[in-house]
Amino acid sequence: MSCALSVSALTSRSVVLKKTCRPSAETPAKVALFGPLPPESNSLIRIAKLKLIARAIGIRRLDLGPQGGTVLFEEKHAIDPGTVVRLIQKAPREYRLEGPLKLRVSRALPAEEARFDFAADLMKRLGAKAPGPAK
């Protein structure tokens, strides 16, 4: 983490100190003065990243628990319907459509880490473009 300290004087009696920090590649989950982030904070950061990806591809809500969960799509989304169909065809016991905008996921995900990894992988697969026609 690289930090810079800037000093500016407003009047002869007051001084303003401003500290700006930018995370570096060497310490992605550390704050300079306070040490490593607690696991809860890392989870919040991972959730925020997943939300950004979900919003970009058109997922309104993603709920995953120990027994699976649901994916709720926006009315207008960037997800190829063929990708969803192929996902269901490859694993019909794991994935099932419940209406036009809801995908049910039936998979045991007992650990939080497993849920994060599965969510990231699922969004990666849903956000991938469909393969083009063979030439």
Description of the molecule:
There is one protein chain. Mean pLDDT is 79; it is low at 5-17. The strands form 3 sheets. This protein has a 4-stranded antiparallel beta sheet with strand order 5-6-8-7. It starts with a strand and ends in an 8-residue tail after the last helix. It has helices at 39-57, 81-90, 112-127, and strands spanning 2-9, 15-22, 30-31, 35-36, 59-65, 68-73, 95-97, 102-105. The protein is α+β, with helices and mostly antiparallel strands and 135 residues long. The longest helix has 19 residues, at 39-57. α1 runs parallel beside α3 (112-127). It has a domain at 36-127: Transcription-repair-coupling factor, D7 domain (Aspartate Aminotransferase, domain 1).
Describe this structure in a few short sentences:
The chain is built from three helices and eight strands.
Which tags fit this structure?
four-stranded antiparallel beta sheet, 30% strand, alpha+beta, 135 residues, 8 strands, single chain, Aspartate Aminotransferase, domain 1
Instruction: Look at the structure and name the CATH superfamily of the domain at 36-127.
Output: Transcription-repair-coupling factor, D7 domain
Question: Order of strands across the widest beta sheet?
Answer: 5-6-8-7
Tally the helices. 3
Strand segment count = 8
Would you identify the CATH architecture of the domain at 36-127? Alpha-Beta Complex
Round the Cα radius of gyration to an integer and report it.
Answer: 22 Å
- Global outline: globular
Can you tell me the CATH topology of the domain at 36-127?
A: Aspartate Aminotransferase, domain 1
Largest sheet: 4 strands, antiparallel
What low-confidence regions span 5 or more consecutive residues with pLDDT below 50? 5-17
